């Protein structure tokens, strides 16, 4: 079997998943109504035969507009499921003619509430653009603009290659990548956006451009890219798999261990911002207690230098295991069957991210106590969590910060209260936001840094432009100048808009 037919089978298999939003099956789409639906006027005439238009009232439309978080979701008057690059061009031109706002959507895991400013707009569903093509020289691959992480990881793995993607199997590559994009391999190779070699992008005026190192927007698309266009394909660096094997150990702890646990994390894992390049850790708080994952690359078991200090704290449970790189998301609950992929369309899921250098142990205790006591007080928030993510940073820090719009290359930790609730009363929503902000404030005050550094892809949407894109004045001036030039009408001003 040739590598390509193998890849094709793999890709079809990947779409047939259950659980997350990525599971709406391709076949049901292919058997569905023909293009040319009344809600799209004569748009269908200009689209490829693979494109589909879904109108309100149909089950396809309802399914297409489901989102990971319901809070302040955008609303649409039609969904266009594009099948080619040129379909995107045609939809953007059509939307501009109609003076209608539009939004590109891959897997709808973007939760920032600014996208809610799209009302009665046109949804451009990218999921059919999920191709992978590895270049002859094996140094780069070209991916469709709607591809999801699992398709990339599995597709490259079949050729013994890999690249940096986000950790969750159902998140897209472009969604995170345009804002940086954290992933398991970033210690080796940098962020998702650091892999870009070129992007094909449909601009605000409906023209198609190739953006590479020679283009004026090259700096901006790597960190603030959601503001400038719709990516139909990217060419990214890929790498030979040097260390196929990874191992994990997970631990659960009771709340009385917070201080000892975070002292250990600081000392043995984080090592004052020099976490070893082969190591990844992630902790989270929930009402059930504390979980810690330690993952290590290229070993049969996580080194006892890292695990022993945590075993000494008498975890409630601990498990160890080993496998291959594609197994990682499953180990940490980010696989397609895991909870994070699942809950599409059910809850408002709000995040309050902040970047840190190290854990202030006393502040972390205060965060834990406030979190648990509030969940006890307000049971409707009891599915909330706090993410405490510790990626290796070498690959990120190796790239000069001024070279791209991604602003926070100096950070060591990404923490984020994730406050979840089923939307009902305004009062509940206010309680959720109050809790999230209070938790973030404790972390922020403890950081000793005046600025609040907010990862754009986790942002709630109430943060300032400087908080999400960096407070340096030259950055903000440059971003605003480029925005005025390339998107004067603000057609891409819905996901963390610069203006
Ligand atoms: C469960 C979960 C796990 C996550 N894991 C990670 C992670 O490991 N690393 C990380 O860095 N982040 C992660 N995130 C955050 C993630 O980066 C953002 O949620 C991101 O917006 C998701 O992109 P999406 O394409 O899946 O979602 P979508 O909602 O489909 O897209 C998000 C936004 O991106 C823009 N967009 C989408 N497609 C295109 C395109 N082709 N061209 C131009 N713009 C486009 C649109 O403005 C859209 O509103 C995670 C989020 C969730 C919910
Ligand atoms: C279809 O394309 C033609 C030629 O570019 C253009 O004049 C027309 O306005 C388009 N129609 C729609 C509905 O977008
Ligand atoms: C819509 O989604 C539901 C639930 O995932 C699924 O059972 C159904 O087949 C989908 N309908 C269509 C038309 O895709
Ligand atoms: C386009 O829409 C905006 C906002 O809905 C409105 O302010 C503006 O007047 C419209 N322009 C045209 C030419 O219809
Ligand atoms: C941690 O690193 C920072 C920055 O390199 C340095 O200033 C500080 O002294 C270090 N702290 C410890 C405890 O090593
Ligand atoms: C730890 O790993 C074991 C074995 O894979 C698994 O059964 C368990 O659910 C994991 N615990 C957590 C908290 O993820
Ligand atoms: C969480 O709260 C709901 C009510 O909102 C309740 O039914 C459920 O039992 C609670 N779960 C826990 C673990 O406390």
The termini sit apart by: 51 Å
Low-confidence stretches: 1-36
- Number of extended strands: 19
Strand content: 15-25%
Shape: globular
**CATH topological fold name of the largest domain:** Vanillyl-alcohol Oxidase, Chain A, domain 3
Number of continuous helical runs: 17
Bound molecules: flavin-adenine dinucleotide, 2-acetamido-2-deoxy-beta-D-glucopyranose
How many domains make up the coordinates?
A: 3
CATH secondary-structure class of the largest domain: Alpha Beta
Percent of residues in helices: 25-40%
Mean pLDDT: 92
Main sheet makeup: 8 strands, antiparallel
For the record, the CATH architecture of the largest domain stands as 3-Layer(aba) Sandwich
Quaternary structure type: single chain
Overall structural class, as computed from helix and strand content, comes to alpha+beta
* Overall radius of gyration: 22 Å
Pfam family, one: FAD_binding_4
Protein name: Putative FAD-dependent oxygenase
Keywords: FAD, Flavoprotein, Oxidoreductase, Signal
Family: Belongs to the oxygen-dependent FAD-linked oxidoreductase family.
């Amino acid at each position: 079997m040739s590598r390509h037919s193998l890849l094709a089978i793999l890709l079809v298999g990947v779409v047939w998943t259950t659980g997350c939003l990525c599971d709406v099956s391709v076949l049901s789409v292919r058997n569905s109504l023909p293009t040319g639906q009344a809600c799209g006027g004569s748009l269908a005439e200009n689209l490829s035969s693979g494109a589909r238009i879904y109108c309100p009232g149909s089950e396809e439309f309802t399914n297409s507009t489901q989102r990971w978080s319901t809070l302040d979701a955008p609303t649409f008057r039609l969904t266009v499921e594009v099948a080619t690059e040129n379909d995107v061009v045609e939809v953007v031109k059509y939307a501009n003619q109609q003076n209608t706002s539009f939004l590109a959507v891959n897997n709808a895991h973007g939760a920032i509430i600014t996208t809610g400013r799209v009302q009665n707009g046109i949804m451009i569903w990218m999921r059919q653009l999920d191709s992978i093509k590895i270049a002859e020289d094996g140094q780069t691959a070209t991916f469709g603009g709607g591809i999801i992480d699992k398709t990339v990881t599995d597709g490259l793995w079949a050729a013994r290659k890999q690249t940096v993607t986000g950790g969750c199997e159902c998140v897209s590559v472009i969604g995170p990548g345009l804002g940086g994009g954290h992933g398991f391999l970033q210690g080796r190779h940098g962020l998702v956006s650091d892999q870009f070699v070129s992007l094909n992008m449909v601009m605000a005026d409906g023209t198609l451009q190739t953006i590479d190192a020679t283009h004026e927007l090259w700096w901006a698309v790597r960190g603030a890219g959601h503001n400038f266009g719709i990516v139909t394909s990217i060419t990214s660096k890929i790498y030979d798999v040097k260390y196929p094997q990874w191992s994990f150990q997970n631990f659960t702890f009771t709340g009385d261990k917070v201080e000892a646990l975070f002292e250990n994390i600081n000392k043995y894992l984080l090592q004052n911002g020099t976490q070893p390049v082969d190591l990844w850790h992630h902790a989270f708080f929930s009402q059930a207690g504390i979980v810690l994952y330690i993952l290590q690359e290229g070993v049969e078991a996580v080194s006892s230098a890292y695990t022993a200090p945590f075993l000494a704290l008498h975890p409630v449970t601990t498990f160890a295991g080993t496998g291959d790189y594609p197994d990682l998301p499953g180990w940490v609950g980010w696989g397609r069957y895991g909870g994070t992929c699942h809950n599409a369309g059910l809850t408002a899921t709000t995040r309050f991210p902040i970047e840190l250098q190290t854990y202030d142990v006393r502040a972390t205790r205060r965060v834990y106590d406030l979190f648990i006591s509030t969940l006890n007080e307000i049971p409707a928030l009891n599915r909330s969590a706090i993410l405490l993510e510790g990626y290796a940073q070498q690959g990120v820090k190796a790239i000069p910060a001024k070279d791209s719009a991604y602003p926070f290359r100096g950070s060591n930790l990404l923490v984020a209260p994730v406050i979840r609730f089923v939307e009902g009363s305004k009062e509940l929503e206010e309680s959720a936001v109050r809790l999230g902000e209070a938790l973030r404030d404790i972390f922020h005050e403890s950081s000793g840094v005046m600025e609040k550094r907010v990862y754009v892809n986790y942002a709630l949407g109430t943060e300032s432009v400087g908080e999400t894109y960096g407070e340096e004045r030259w950055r903000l001036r440059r971003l605003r100048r480029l925005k005025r030039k390339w998107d004067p009408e603000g057609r891409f001003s819905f996901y963390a808009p610069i203006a």
